[in-house]
Amino acid sequence: MADHPRSETDARLARKGRTAGLVIAVSMVAWLGAQLIGGWLGLPARYAFLIDFAAIAALIWALVVTWQLWQARGGPRPPNGG
C-alpha cells in the first residue's frame, strides 16, 4: 500500500472502476446461472432473450463507465511513460 493519501478524484475513479468490474462479474455469473436454470426448467425462448438483453444492458453500462474512466484519466498514454 502507498503511504501517500490519494486525492478525492482518484478515490472516486477507483470506486467507479470497482463498481464497473463488479457489474461485469455479477452480470456474467447471473447470465450463466439464468441460462442454466432456464434450460433445466424448460423456460420458453422469450425468457432466454430477456435474460440476454438484461446482461447486454449491464455490459453496455459497464462499457460506458469504463470509457468515462479512461477519459477522466486522460485517455491513451505513450508506452514509454513520457
Describe the structure.
It holds the Pfam family DUF5337. This is DUF5337 domain-containing protein. Keywords: Membrane, Transmembrane, Transmembrane helix. The chain crosses the membrane at residues 20-41, 47-70. This protein starts with 7 loop residues before the first helix and ends in a 10-residue tail after the last helix. It has a domain at 27-72. By secondary structure, the chain is mostly helical. It has 2 helices and no strands. The protein has helices at residues 8-41, 45-72. It is 76% helix and 0% strand.
Largest sheet: none
Oligomer status? single chain
Distance between the termini: 25 Å
- Which residues form runs of ≥5 with pLDDT under 50? none
**Number of DSSP helices?**
2
Mean of pLDDT: 89
Strand content: under 5%
Number of strands: 0
What proportion of the residues is helical, as a percent range? over 70%
CA-based gyration radius:
18 Å
Shape: elongated
Series of H and E elements? HH
Structural class: mainly alpha
